[in-house]
């Protein structure tokens, strides 16, 4: 068990370690629904009460992870676009889908943030999350608008749909053990076989083309 952090640098590192542990557990266990504070502190090598020095509760920890996810998505989009120009709507959709699909835990957290995490923290923490998530979404929109033939309004619509689809499709394509067993018994209900990235890409391509046709 690690000693209690005393310097600001050590405290910052402990907070980062807890986030890294939570993300690793979500990947190992098949979703953030299975992540507990006890498991996170164990993975990070801290006492089980230690997490409360950095995050008030499990919800605040996971909301911090979701907030980081928005920044990671922004950076991934910037890297994917690079110095490209004149991208068509389908190319924009592929960039959006591929970057989202590369952030599995973030896609998982999108649904949890909307359903519970934002409402289970204090108002100032919720405000910070909304501020930073909105800022990241705006940057993503501007980057894609500059690199493509789509308008800001069209890309805003695409991003809104992308977030909603990613949140829902991730949950469907990563069922709980009970549902996975049920789908094995009932292949016709085989949501477990749903391919997340191909389905997300197809639907976002259709959305992008439709938005351009409708708002042109």
UniProtKB/TrEMBL annotation:
Organism for this UniProt entry: Asanoa iriomotensis
Q: Which residues bind DNA?
A: 36-55
Asked if the record carries the keyword DNA-binding, the reply is yes
Keywords linked to the UniProt accession? DNA-binding
Protein name as catalogued: HTH tetR-type domain-containing protein
SUPFAM superfamilies on file: Homeodomain-like
Which residues are in the HTH tetR-type domain? Answer: 12-73
Q: Which Gene3D superfamilies match?
A: Tetracycline Repressor, domain 2 (1.10.357.10)
